[in-house]
Design a protein that fits this description.
By secondary structure, the chain is α/β, with parallel strands linked by helices. The chain has helices spanning 16-20, 64-74, 95-114, 131-143, 167-176, 198-205, 207-219, 222-225, 240-255, 263-267, 282-290, 312-318, 325-340; strands at 5-11, 76-82, 120-125, 149-153, 179-183, 230-234, 272-276, 295-297. It is built from 13 helices and eight strands. The longest helix is centred in the first third of the chain and has 20 residues, at 95-114.
Amino acid sequence: MAKKRVDCDGHVMEVTDELISFVGEPFKTTGHMNPRRVLPSLDRFHTPRLEERKPGTFDPSVGPEKWLQFLDKTGLESSVLFPTEGLAYGQVAFPPWAIAYARAYNDWLYAKYLKFNSRFKGMALIPMQEVPAAVTELRRAVKELGMVGAMLPSNGLNPHLSAKHFWPVYEEAAKLDCALAVHGGCYGDLGFNTYTVFPATRALGMPVPLAIAATGMIVDGVLDAFPTLRIGFLEGGTSWIPMVIDRLERELEYGGLRIKRKPADYFKSGKLFCSCEGNEKALSYAIERIGAEPFMFASDFPHEISLDNCMEEIDEIIQRDDLQEEHKTAILGDNARRFYKI
């Protein structure tokens, strides 16, 4: 099996004081910057957590040096880096701050990680709250900072991601030939933040927004209008994909839904991608339905995996007997390289 593996979804731990130093006018001179809270709450979960986090599965001290150790130990060729606190970025309601924060985050990520080592690939934040500014920042992040694309918040934006309001962003991404990735992790207003057990909130709060986003992009015509656009759906597993396909096929038959292709064909187009988890039983069934081309290995380091057990997720894929060898190779590297054009 090829050793050139790619992590499609790793995370940086934002150092707020550092990041704020990149914020420009007018915020820097207002005197109202609070480095303890510059973004809304990530999950809006208010019930105290009674469960203990598994030791060693979350390390807020991880920076470029520890990240590089992780790549070396796992044999990963590279990792595509996403934010942590920035997963709540879609909830920012004040467009000028959304613009300022995106520029600051992107400049900080470039300075701290991308310049540190070329094995780190950056996904930008873009201010979808102000579409023209989002187009400009996407172009700057790709052209000037060398990022491989941008993250789209899975939750918080209004209107919905598939609304024509946002189509200039998709047009620009298609022109730039860069990736856009809808990333789970923000659970507000989905009904799950009122659970009293946080793992249940996370269990549903990750995949459901991805299903909503993918469905919208299919039925609202985004994928037909921009046939070369590459979009990923990350950190929600794969079990939601057959559900979306089956429910839309039912609506085609009984509900009067009008779309240009069969639902499964959108996922087979080579333009939709999805991160997968090594031990999820649904992966083999999803591959049976749409092939292995969309699926990519994601470490989620340093959120769910530590340097002590970092090979576990990779080994789970390698040791599976329900996946073909060529599928394993594609999942562990080839598909991510196609998605991000690495």
